[in-house]
Design brief:
Elements lengths: L1 H26 L1 E5 L6 H7 L4 H8 L11 E5 L5 H47 L6 H13 L3 H11 L27 H15 L7
Antiparallel strand pairs: 1-2
Length: about 210
């Protein structure tokens, strides 16, 4: 009788151990949301599980699963290979994003510097300060007429020797370009008058 009771107790303890083990195993699960292109087999490979275990845990019939479906994966743990692949992918994405941001910032800085330099150059050539008369006049005339600065330099050198207020006592021509259509005016006025004269007569106005 004592031996029989001992056997029963031992059997009960073993059964209880299996029950507890099964309970612990069942609790160690992961929830996974099905994505387009997934199959039970591919999911089982991701989580180092089996097709039967996944289908039994989720009452799946005929291996049919749908995108968006939440599955319970028994003993679900991503394999080391999958984990490493995921980590590498995330690291690569982060690196690419940082490189793109750096490239974008570099391009922006380059464009800003270029625009700033262009603005400074334009400002220096379009504003007459008195000390930059030759630069201003040649820049204005070449950009507004399409005739080279060297040609305008030769014309002004011949006509007035770069004397802005000189007047021809015979013809009454005035200024840098010896323009007979004006009798006075600032350097800016003389440039505007010369451009107007060029638009009307071309280089023939200066016998060219």
């Amino acid at each position: 009788m004592k031996k029989f009771v001992t056997t029963i107790l031992a059997t009960s303890a073993a059964a209880l151990g299996l029950f507890v083990a099964g309970t612990v195993s069942a609790d160690a699960s992961t929830t996974y949301t099905v994505k387009s292109g997934d199959s039970v087999w591919t999911i089982s490979q991701k989580f180092d599980s089996t097709i039967n275990a996944i289908e039994n845990a989720n009452n799946i019939q005929g291996h049919l699963i749908l995108p968006g479906q939440n599955l319970t994966i028994p003993d679900g743990t991503l394999t080391s290979t999958q984990t490493a692949a995921t980590t590498n992918t995330q690291a690569a994405a982060t690196t690419n994003t940082q490189q793109a941001a750096t490239t974008s910032q570099s391009t922006t800085n380059t464009n800003t510097n270029t625009n700033s330099q262009a603005s400074t150059t334009s400002s220096s050539s379009s504003s007459y300060t008195g000390s930059n008369m030759k630069e201003y006049v040649l820049s204005q005339m070449s950009s507004r007429t399409g005739v080279s600065a060297s040609t305008w330099n030769a014309i002004i050198q011949r006509e007035s020797n770069w004397q802005a207020n000189v007047v021809n006592s015979t013809s009454g021509a005035y200024g840098l370009f010896q323009n007979m259509h004006i009798s006075s005016g600032s350097v800016e006025d003389q440039v505007n008058a010369a451009v107007s004269l060029y638009n009307q007569q071309g280089m023939a106005a200066w016998a060219l």
